[in-house]
Prior knowledge:
Chain A: Keywords: Membrane, Transmembrane, Transmembrane helix. Chain A: It comes from Flaviaesturariibacter amylovorans. The complex is a heterodimer. By secondary structure, chain A is mainly α. In chain A, about 75% of the residues lie in helices and about 0% in strands. Chain A has helices at about 5-25, 30-55, 60-80, 85-105, 115-135, 150-175, 180-205. By secondary structure, chain B is α+β, with helices and mostly antiparallel strands. In chain B, helix 1 packs antiparallel against helix 2 (about 95-125) and helix 3 (about 125-135) crosses helix 4 (about 135-150). The longest helix of chain B has about 90 residues, at about 1-90. The relative contact order of chain B is 0.08. Classes of the chains: A mainly alpha, B alpha+beta. Chains A and B meet through helix 5 and helix 6 of A and helix 1 of B.
Amino acid sequence: MGIDPKFLVYYFLIFLCSVAGMLRYREKRELRPLFVLLPVSLCTEVYVEYLIQQKRPYYFVYHVYEILDFLFFCLLFSRNLPGGRARLAPLALFTIYAAVAITLSLTRIPVSVYPSVQYSIESFFLILLSLFYLLTIPAESGKRIFEHNMFWICTGLLFVHAGILLVNGSYNYLKSLSSARALAIKDWVNMLFNYILYFSFLTATLWRTGSTRSLS
Amino acid sequence: MADRFDEVVIMIILASLLLLLLAVIVIVSVIKYKQRQRRHVEEKNAIRQQFNQELLHTRIEIQEQTLKHIAQEIHDNIGQTLSLAKLHLNTIGTREGHEGAEKLGTTKDLVSKAIVDLRGLSRTLNSDAVLSGGLLKAVESELALIGRAGVFTTSLEITGQPVSLDPQKELILFRIVQEALNNSIKHSEASRIVVSLSYGENSVCTSVADNGKGAVRAPAADQPGGTGLLNMKSRSEIIGGTFSFTSAASGTEVRVILPTN
């Protein structure tokens, strides 16, 4: 069974972001959690693709990955949000999320099923964090908003997760119209939003900011 | 079929609205960022301005302390020495004849004049004397001191009902007048200097004008007189006054308008 070209483009984008992240790892310290997450995502996707090719169950991988994914995003926000208390908020959100996600995986949504509920909760939390960051980006004189790495990341996360939530929310309705078409639409829309997300990551990683804040 | 088509249209509209909402959020965040950035710049400027003001205050305080010390030294040491010299001169007889007596008389006069001038100088340098006597008295005394040299004709013009200002403000205003008078003496080649104090309802306008050669333009900070002008401007800003400098071929005028309420 061959790999779908749209997935190949998707993997290539993650690979490109991972390489860019490695190149900028020393320079952009505030984005380090993202730079660690990107290769983890790539490995996960490659492993899932391998399991698909082997015709073996693979949804269990996402049950673990979604928690890791949210953990790294929370660390990213925690590093970049202004103020001591605000930095604790993502970590508190992660604790709540991890507890809910693990409970759901162990009780209501078995690992043989795709963890769509967990992903929807993650999307909701990421939208909240992105909105909060976008509205409180710390102002620096002489630095335009586009020069803030997190502006691109938050904009990407906001669009992608809002879009994914909309598609997932309407998936059952679309399925009632046509099951095959619903799946195709969901796949395409998810993929398209993922392209947008990784383009925004690439922009944030490669954008030269002039003066990078040291946060460690 | 038509119903399903309608529902798909509704979904597309919903999706478009969502995208529009997200775009609005991003635009709002950009606008809010710009507002915060403007506020940040304003705050930075305010802090810098406050720092400069405090720096100026400190400089003025140090200057006042130095002047006070010099004034005390003049009064206590040089003044005393001259007084003693005059006392000794008084005890010298006139055995040298008429010429000797005349020379002795002249020397006594010169020493007396030096004592009076030094006392005047000591008074104008000492901030306590300025603070206790008030601005008008201090200016009068300063003009008298200049007038005694015989090079300049000086006058003080007062209009309106004089009001007492905050002593610190009066002191700073007096230092501005002193600086302007010094500039006239040093650079103007004038024959007449007029200080006017005009008391209005809400402000007092102080001006020092001379009939000298004038300056083509206000000198830069690194040119002679430039630092003096900057000092006067900074001092007026400290007390909340408006400083202006005008110069023409017919003379120069320094003006400070200070709100009184």
